[in-house]
What we know:
This protein is of the alpha/beta class. The protein has one domain (3-93, 118-248, 256-341): TIM Barrel (Alpha-Beta Barrel). Helix content is 51%, strand content 12%. Helix 10 (173-197) packs parallel to helix 11 (214-235) and helix 13 packs parallel to helix 15 (297-311). It is globular and about 55 Å long. The two termini are 31 Å apart. Coproporphyrinogen III (CP3) is lined by residues 26-31, 40, 46, 73, 75, 77-79, 91, 96-97, 142, 144, 158, 205, 207, 322-323.
Amino acid sequence: MDRTAERKLLRVLDGERFDVPPVWLMRQAGRYLPEYRETRKRAGGFLQLCYTPELAIEVTMQPIRRFGFDAAILFSDILVIPDALGRKVRFEEGRGPILEPIGPEEIPAMSGEGAMEHLSPVLEAVAGIRSGLDEETTLLGFCGAPWTVATYMIAGHGTPDQAPARLFSYRHRDAFSRLIDLLADVSADYLIAQLKAGADAVQIFDSWSGVLGEADFEKWCVEPVRRMVARVRAAVPGARIIGFPKGAGIAYGDYRAKTGVTALGLDWAVPLSFARRLQEEGAVQGNLDPMRVIAGGGALDEGVDAILEALSGGPLIFNLGHGITPDAPIAHVEQLLKRIRG
Ligand code: CP3
């Protein structure tokens, strides 16, 4: 029997609507949870946590156990791809990710060879999570979109406006294009492997797509994601894929049609009236401002109510407009769920 029919979130991706929408939160496994901080300490480093299946499974399950979200998201990071490409990624406490910045001359020699073997512990975690989850709970896999991952590879760390990557894309266009293509192919293969290991659907995080002008957005965000979607569907027909081009603004309008993603993840700045139009073509996910979760009280309730009022008439996956922050109080997450589920 196909038990996936019991998974509400998958039914929404297929276009169904529910009075009470399915809900999960980006970054739902993380530092706002004391049990995460405990496991993180036990793991030593952040990447050890990602590459030790038993621990990755444990932290993936923590928010499901505590809150009963409709979806679990694989615990990993978008930067395991550069790590698998040999770029020496480190995560420093309080500083975020640090990588060895890549130069244009290094790009021609790069290849995806051996990347999937490097990522095999993550795939093992996917299989373990799926077998431990309830039948009703969806398992989401994910990866970063090529542009967003490239911004870290080029700067060597997070940057406020991704200026180093933008500059690199103008100065070293051929090398940059080659890097984006490599990331697209390796990331698509990684998503295929996640889907084959037991992920029910996947999300592509393009967290920094909002800094690009029109032509660059087409070239570095739309086109590589289109290429990834085509490659994934060629291997896994009908694969359900959520695209999250954060900050895309009016470019959200034809992103689904151009890339072929199943659903659109919306950031909190997307007007709800526009979101409703986007919903006419398929499921949308979002888009509560994570600051409302920190604030709690009326600010949280009003934000939830506005989204439900505007979007619960169509296929909706309730989520935040970006990841939950480490200072989000657990009581406010409980309040959010109560407000959605009644
Ligand atoms: O959503 C989940 O619960 C699954 C796990 C997940 C993590 N990172 C765990 C993580 C997911 C889906 C991500 C995606 C990710 N990682 C993105 C895209 C989404 C977004 O938020 O924009 C990006 C840009 C990254 C890169 C990254 N990883 C940064 C910039 C940082 C440091 C800043 C921060 O939030 O700490 C990380 C580290 C990271 N990834 C942590 C977690 C739980 C915190 C690390 C720690 O425990 O010390």
